[in-house]
Every structure is written in C-alpha cells, then in structure tokens.
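Hey, quick one: can you model this chain's 3D structure?
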Amino acid sequence: MPELPEVETVRRGLAPVMEGAAVERLEVRRPDLRWPFPERFAERMQGRKVLRLRRRAKYLLADLDGSETLIMHLGMSGSFRVLLGNEETSPGEFMYPRSTASVHDHVVFHLTPRASVTFNDPRRFGAMLMGDTAALGEHALFKGLGPEPLGEELTPGYLAAACAGRKTSLKAALLDQRIVAGLGNIYVSEALHLAHLSPKKAAGVLADRKGAPTDAARRLVPAIRKVIAAAIEAGGSSLRDHRKTDGDLGMFQHRFRVYDREGVKCPTRGCSGTVKAIVQNARTTHYCPVCQR
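Sure thing. Here's the predicted structure for all 293 residues.
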C-alpha cells in the first residue's frame, strides 16, 4: 500500500492539472471501490471547481467550491493517469508494469480546460468519498488522527506524552495513526534505524518517569522528518504497484537503509551488524540488532 511519501508525490503530480480546473463531466464506471461511491456522485461533481488539492495522512483531499471535499485513497493498487490534450503523461520503462486495461479505469475526471484524470485500481481497495470541508476533522476517517510527520506538532515532547507508560513496541506505536498520521511499515523501519532505536523496545522509552522526552524521543523526531522528507524528494518507493502520476518509478527504494535488506551489512558507519527481519504484529520489520538497541 502506498505510504505518505507516495501519496504526497501523487498530490504534487495532480495539483498542476486539477487545482483551478472545473469538472466538466465525471465518469463513474462501477458502483463502488472499497466502499460505495457517494450518492449521485457524477451529478454532484459536475461543474464543480477544484480549489485546492491537499493531503492528510495517506488521503488526497480535493477541496471543491460549494464547501465540499472529495476524499480519495489509493488503496493497494490505485493510480492516476493524466491526459493533457492528446498526450498522456506516462513516459518511462517500468519494472512493475502499471495496469492500462480499461476494465480497471473506474473513475474519469473530464476537466476544463481540456484534460482528463483517470483513476485505475485493479484490486479496488481505493476509495472516493465526499465530506463537508469545514467539518472534515470530525469525519470518521480523520477524527483522532495524530500530527503529520513533517508538521510542527510532532515534537519530542508530544511523542513522550503520547507514549508515556506504553508497553507496546516502538514499531507498533509509530504505526498507530492516532499517534502519528501517515507513517507506514517502510518508513517506520527506516526512521528507527536512523535513530538507532530497537523496534522491539517498549514505546514508553520515549518518556522518563516525569513524562519528559528522553534522548530516544529527541533522536526519533528528526529521524522521522529526515526519512519522510528524503522519500518525498525521491518520489516515494516503488514497491509492487506504486507509480508517480507521470508513470516514473519512485526512487527511494534505492536509498533504503534496512527495509528489504535482510542479510545485508548494516550501513551505519563502524557497525558490524547484519540487517535482520522479524515479524511484529503481522508486519515484517527490518532492523540491525547491533546498533539498534
């Protein structure tokens, strides 16, 4: 499933085409994806102007005139293709070919000025919903979400308060969207390695007995920020189905420190360890047992 950097990469690719454009017509070619489409979806979208395209956690949010927001999720295999005039922006050679079968083109935005944006999703775990823009924070998908990894609210003090006394593992705590929104398996593994923290440690290690942030919390926050920022800059990670909107592969997978590197020497300078893979909460964790303690 695409993680935050992949979703942000898609947002940046779609924004120049969608922001400021009007939906001349919306084609909806099936009744649902992961969930049913909004009632009268095509009718409600016709003529609407996209004021802004933003992201919250792993969701794309298209703010529309009329005070509604289109909520979009890529699911496991969802992707967008952009057609400008007669030219589709999907250059490049792909290690894992993206679906081009029209049977998987489930939603097509016909935009003014002349352009189209097609959502293709072979596995149909994606989603498109609508909500009131002003009340989006109270929507079931967003209520209770933690701060963004690159947001100002994510501080060592915040993490200490959120994790004080928790016996669950650091890995599980960071995957909890109520603590930090948008972090997924890949980037949690990467951030913990960069911060030299064991994914098996109890999350409570981030706070001392008085609830103040420990050195572990002070190392972890900049590590999270650095990993997420680098992944966004690189265009995300191309694992299985992820593609940027121009069709190119994200490149962050070539910078992985530990993820999917089982058996490889730890990249930490001076470390003699070898990357190990374990299973935590049904998810694979990659880490170095020598320098992550």
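One thing worth noting: The two ends are 28 Å apart (CA to CA).
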